[in-house]
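Reopening this one. Same input as before:
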Amino acid sequence: MKTVVVGIGNPYLQDDRAGVVVIERLEEEGIGCQTEMVLTVGFEVMDKIKGYDQAIIVDACMLGREPGEILEVNVDDIFTTHALVNSHAVTLGTTLKTGSICFPDEMPANIRILLIEVKDIKEFTQQMSPEVEAAVDIVVEKIKTMVAEQAVAG
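Same output, byte for byte:
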């Protein structure tokens, strides 16, 4: 089964860089699948996941939860929940739903989305808050497990 992991974020904004850091760490550890980084949730995300059987997407979010809290959601959750509109101009849910409508045969059948609640995304720094840094470590391990399980199942 072909899997891609996509990290979304701004590498220069404190906790918004969480998705990018997850990808950097997975690449350092030599994860057994394709990885991609994108700066926005626009149609570039759709282009990065087309043609794969499974996509795992990591992004930061601001839902008013505890900083560092990790949520696993699906496309319908983020398409229909207005609270999941983040700092990006187009929501991730809209992008993924558009892809499934426009390219039903090319979009992954299995899309898993991991969101990390941020503490601060206003400061220009490459230092994440301790809560988000800890969550990134957990997400990296979770993704490694997801990819390994898919390799065994596939």
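So the earlier flakiness isn't reproducible anymore. For the record, The chain has five helices and five strands.
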